[in-house]
Q: What sequence folds into this?
């Protein structure tokens, strides 16, 4: 059983057959349904994953002479005669779409596991961006599919032998897959927010550490600069132990900054608390120590 463009033109007329010909000869076309009076055309786009890359492929279906035809390689090939058989063909394409969407779901599961276990690779953002890009494309693709299939269903409801209930369930499956895809996009956003919070937390700790180190070494640098001035009357200038005294001074200041608050805690616990008890002077002094500790300890 064959069908030629001359037969298509004789049944549909020149204008409609030209419209079908222009659409069917496009390499890339969105999913679309349109009624032709004596039949209908259904351009069906579906997902494919080739060479580790998401791609789209298109099938061109024509319903004419109460038969379904697939236009491929510049000729019409007979597919089936009933709407039920054609729905089975569409379901086979849908199952392929679902497999690819679930594959991206598994990739996101692995990305989240690594992130929440703090096993973050250097390529995290590259992997996140690739998932975001492809899943967003799938979500837009499914949204267009739903509109085209609803047009198909609306047209089929006018026929007596059309499987309305089965086709409606088929559309519900597409909608459920799109909702799943939208859930994946939400999870991706949550993963990105968590990754950003980890990076910001690490950056804040590094900045805090630099601040503490600057607070420790700035007084030491001032002292070194003071004794490095080439002027008369400097302390320890004529003392043979002057360098040793300066070194002891630097070490002492360093230890005060590093160990000072720990020593104050010990004094507070074993001296002030026992001696002053709950007096207002002790409480005020203790709060001042805690405030200073919060500002300067790491």
A:
């Amino acid at each position: 059983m064959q069908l030629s463009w001359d037969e298509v033109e004789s049944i549909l007329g020149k204008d409609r057959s030209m419209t079908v010909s222009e659409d069917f000869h496009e390499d890339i076309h969105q999913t679309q349904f349109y009624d032709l009076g004596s039949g209908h055309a259904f351009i069906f786009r579906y997902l494919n994953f080739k060479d580790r890359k998401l791609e789209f492929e298109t099938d061109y279906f024509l319903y004419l002479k109460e038969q379904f035809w697939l236009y491929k390689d510049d000729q019409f090939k007979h597919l089936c005669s009933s709407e039920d058989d054609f729905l089975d063909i569409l379901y086979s394409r849908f199952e392929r779409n679902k497999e690819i969407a679930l594959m991206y779901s598994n990739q996101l599961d692995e990305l989240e596991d690594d992130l929440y276990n703090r096993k973050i690779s250097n390529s995290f953002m590259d992997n996140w961006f690739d998932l975001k890009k492809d899943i967003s494309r799938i979500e837009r693709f499914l949204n267009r599919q739903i509109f085209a299939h609803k047009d198909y269903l609306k047209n089929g409801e006018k026929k007596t032998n059309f499987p309305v209930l089965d086709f409606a369930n088929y559309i519900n499956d597409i909608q459920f897959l799109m909702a799943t895809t939208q859930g994946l996009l939400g999870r991706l956003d949550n993963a990105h927010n968590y990754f950003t919070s980890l990076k910001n937390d690490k950056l804040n700790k590094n900045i805090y550490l630099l601040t503490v180190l600057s607070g420790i070494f700035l007084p030491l640098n001032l002292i070194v600069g003071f004794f490095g001035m080439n002027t008369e009357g400097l302390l320890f200038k004529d003392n043979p132990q002057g360098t040793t005294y300066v070194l002891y001074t630097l070490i002492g200041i360093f230890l005060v900054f590093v160990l000072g608050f720990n020593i104050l805690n010990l004094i507070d616990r074993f001296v002030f608390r026992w001696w002053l008890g709950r007096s207002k002077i002790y409480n005020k002094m203790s709060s001042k120590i805690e405030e200073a500790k919060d500002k300067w300890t790491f």
About this structure: The first helix runs from residue 5 to 12. The chain has seven helices and six strands. The beta strands are 2-3, 32-35, 40-50, 53-64, 67-72, 75-80.
